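Quarterly update, task 2.4: biotin-bound model.
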Amino acid sequence: MIQRFVYETIDSTNREAFRLANNEGAQKAPFFVLSKTQTEGKGRVGRKWESEEGGLYFSLYLRPSLEIDKASMLTLIMAVAVAKAIHKCLQVKLEDSNNYTLEIKWPNDIVLNGKKVVGILTELRCDQDGYAVVIGTGVNLSQTRFAEELQEKATSMKSELGISISTEILLKYIEEYFLQEYTTFEKIGDLSFLRETYESMLANKDRQVRVLDPKEEFLGIARGIDEMGRLLVETKDGQIQKVYAGEVSVRGLLGYVD
Ligand code: BTN
């Protein structure tokens, strides 16, 4: 089992992971940092991640051996691991698994019945020995109130399905699935082994997307991902554009996913 550092409250588990690795008596990879609440939970693009009690907030600190340009793929691996772990927990709670949809909005948001339920923020730091990655994950489990601007697009397991999931069991499955996939990834060096599984969960698949590229915004149909985790978007003229995570953002045409 991967070593865990558990807190009642902390500013951000991502920040704490880097601190633990860099302070005197530096902690060696891999390890988890978990906290019941975060006072400055970080979201993507400088946003705040609401982290009140009742959610699962954790960061996984790793020192991958693969080239640094492959690090962004770890986020997709974590998304698949978390989605599988949620399915597993729901399987035992719900008799009918057709009562919900759980999908990945490329590259790494997990959406339950069309609303975001998991966010992942991967941060990277280079040093003289290589690089470190912190994969920070927030799962909305029992929150029932969301900030006004999030109400339309965020949800939790509890508000959507009326179900309580144990953070301990969920993390156990996440760790199990992540380690399986990470071991294969370190051997193979790309996402070819995970492509089919990822695409089977991809909310954007065969749907229209708006690619918010700072250079040029365009519309197309998302067809899947390639072995590097890039989104394959078919444009009007039948060309396939490969979209890198991190550079652009992808939206549905109507709402968050649709
Ligand atoms: C997103 O904006 O979708 C990413 C949200 C990531 C939130 C998690 S909660 C645990 C970890 N610690 C942080 O400060 N952020 C991540």
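Highlight for this quarter: The pocket of biotin is lined by residues 12-14, 38, 41-44, 47, 49, 51, 57-59, 109, 119-121, 136-138 (CB under 6 Å).
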